[in-house]
Amino acid sequence: MSGTVEPDWGAVRADYEETDTPIVEIAAAHAVTLNQLNTRRRREHWTLRKPGVGRQRRQSLLARMLGLIEAQITQMEKKLAEEPMSATEMRMLESMTKALDKITALEAAEKKVVKKRVRMDPELEAIRERLIDRISKLETED
């Protein structure tokens, strides 16, 4: 006999499916590796955790917000061809931009990284740059 004790996979599964405990902590608490946990999860078709937990949720939210801001700017640009942008629309655009900056700042604080600017996914960074260009163009048209 090898002397190793088989983990209580029922308890591991319960912790995974029924709690918001990070997977790293679940693995450590049950003395299994992340690879073992994920292999068992896939093989036994465990119920997936709530979509977008932790960092994944923030990244998804950030991507969705960037998409919404970009769509709103596109809509405003089309409308701008017909009439000037209203003060309400400008405030809405400003609010969305501030929310994006706050999310980015929170993510940086969580990582405890001291940087002037948080590096985002290259695709998100490209969208952000296009938004900055569009906003500056809209501001100069006033």
Residue-averaged pLDDT: 79
Number of helical segments with 4 or more residues: 6
Described by the principal axes of the CA atoms, the overall outline is: elongated
* Cα-based radius of gyration, to the nearest Å: 22 Å
| Gap from first CA to last CA | 80 Å
The counted number of beta strands is 0
Order of helices and strands: HHHHHH
The proportion of residues forming helix, as a percent range, comes to 55-70%
How would a textbook summarize the main sheet? none
Q: Which secondary-structure class do the elements indicate?
A: mainly alpha
Strand content: under 5%
- pLDDT < 50 stretches: none
Blueprint (SSEs and pairs):
Blueprint: H1 9-18, H2 23-29, H3 34-43, H4 55-80, H5 87-111, H6 122-140
Helix pairs in contact: 4-5, 4-6
Structure commentary:
The chain has 142 residues and is mostly helical. The chain is built from six helices and no strands. The chain has helices at 9-18, 23-29, 34-43, 55-80, 87-111, 122-140. Helix 4 packs parallel to helix 6 (122-140). The radius of gyration is 22 Å and the shape is elongated. The model has no long low-confidence stretch (mean pLDDT 79).
